[in-house]
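#struct-pred

JT: dropping the chains for the assembly here, can someone run the whole complex?
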Amino acid sequence: MSPVNTRVRTPTENPDANNSTSLPKHGVVGVVRLGAVGEAVLKIVVANLQEILNLPVDILPARQTPEFAYSDNRKQYHAALILKKLAESRRPHPRILALVSVDLFIPVLTHVFGEAQMGGRAAVVSLHRLKQKEEGGGVSLDIFYERAAKVALHEVAHTFDLVHCKQPECIMRLSSGPKDLDELPLFFCEYCEAFLEEAYRRYGIQRLHD
Amino acid sequence: MDKVRILVVDDELVIRESLHGWLKKSGYQVDTAEGGSAALAMLEKTAYDLLFLDIMMPVMSGIEVLEVVKEDYPQTLVVMITAYGSVETAVQAMKRGANDYLMKPFDPDQLSLLTEKLMQQKRIMDENIFLREQMAEAIRFENLVGRSEAMQELFTLIQDVAESDSPVLITGETGTGKELVAKAIHAKSARCNGPFIAINCGAFPEHLLESELFGHERGAFTGAHRAKKGRLDLAHHGTLFLDEVGIVPLKMQVDLLRVLETKEFHRLGGTEEIEVDFRTIAATNRELQQAIEKGEFRQDFFYRLNVISLHIPPLRERRDDIPLLAEHFLDRYSRETNKDIDTINKEAMGLLRQYDWPGNVRELENAIERAVVIGKKRRLDPEEFSFLAPHLSAAAETYSLEKTQVAHLFKVLKEFDWNITKAAQALEINRVTLHKKIKKYDLRPDRASS
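RK: done, full complex below.
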């Protein structure tokens, strides 16, 4: 499935000027680039989050690569430290997603595509390995964008308490590598859809469209 | 399968936290422990499906924890984790029963595949337990439990006996389950829809036993304000179980013999002949042949009762049934007391097997009930059966040369307050030999010899 390309809000837009579309003052999810992340992938991720999660999403001003999370031993960036920092953000958004181009790890794993606080505020996606084929070499931009959108959706859904799903046709299914990731659909199964709706109600979150 | 419970044991906080977070995202219920002792304390309270266990930990190593887990909680799967990915350590862990191992940091694909694989394995193990429980029905007959040859023969005999309507005499020591056998015969017989009326003949003085059995009319004796049906009456169309028949007084034996022969009787103080139809099952722990020789039991009554005889062997003659019975009672009493106790540790089970159980199955049942009531952990240890210890010395007598040697060494060392020189002199061996033996048998002042 191709990523959704819909109109997305950018930092240059003033949400207050969009009263006619009855958008709230700020989105539910704020997406921030940390370091060298392309504009196109950012917009595609945001568009997909907005469309599939049915939530207003804002693009936040870009920040620098999170050097504070760099590990000399691992030569990678510690995802949990980035999440901790993101969770402390003063932005009003109930959820913050960061996109990074550096490779992420958590102490127990060699790498992660993304990481999120279960039922928390922060999530982060690394684009580093999404550009690569499992067998080596690079993938096309289409595949790269689609992977980025999938990991972003998956991680943000974790912040709404969704756990990995056993359904084969669900974005919340645990993917064990880029190849698995390519086989995942870009939507939630009916159960996860229901869990997500329930989480929105629990967290008092207003959906974009009823 | 309920929500999978996982325990992560690692002395490094970051490892605990990151593995905890990762596993939680897969919907597992995850707890963490920073060391072996904390992990074992948690295992005592909670039945974990899977343990991620770091090999290199201070105080108590992962291998030590693994050994306890495999012995006391064999249903818990263990994955060893190590930052020191030496194949040697991992192989050592696998040899000691670890289900798999991972080297830190893990590849996420490897971790998810392994977790999935082990959960599949756990499902199969749980199914096996279920099937074993179903198979256990085959070693349970009504409420009787036993896999020993003697009990299997008894079950077959009960089945055969149940089909006839002849009187049965059950013999066996006190507490062997004679009433259960009688109930099983009744349940399997054509009279199963009729009543099963039991009377413990030893529980009543003579005049009351007569009234209990035969009933009485109003005014039959002082205090008989109302007419009352006796057990013979109540057993109509069913089974009458005469427990402790060996101590029925001689006079009453005559009366009962008459009833068994004619199936007619009259109540105390009554004249009306009452016809009854029941099957008789009697039980005794007395040697009735000896009682006959002493003139305390009527031979004709004995022959009337003993058309078919069944003997239940004492528990000490079928020790193989002890673990099965112990688990059966553990299951019952942990459910009844609503306590999450599901294992009897190997040492404690060994102790139960050693004991002679003079009170037989009933005594074992009481012991398990008592241990469950006082037990504070998920597992029953020897300390929960300490009340058996004073009676164990004789039962624990061993013919093993090694065990005798260990016990003797321990005794002498204790006697000389662990003074090696003096103990060696008393043992008439040199100090080096004694040191070697102490090391070999891991003798320590804080450890009792076994």
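JT: nice. The CA atoms of residues 78 and 107 of chain A lie 8 Å apart. Confidence is low (pLDDT under 50) at residues 5-21 of chain A.
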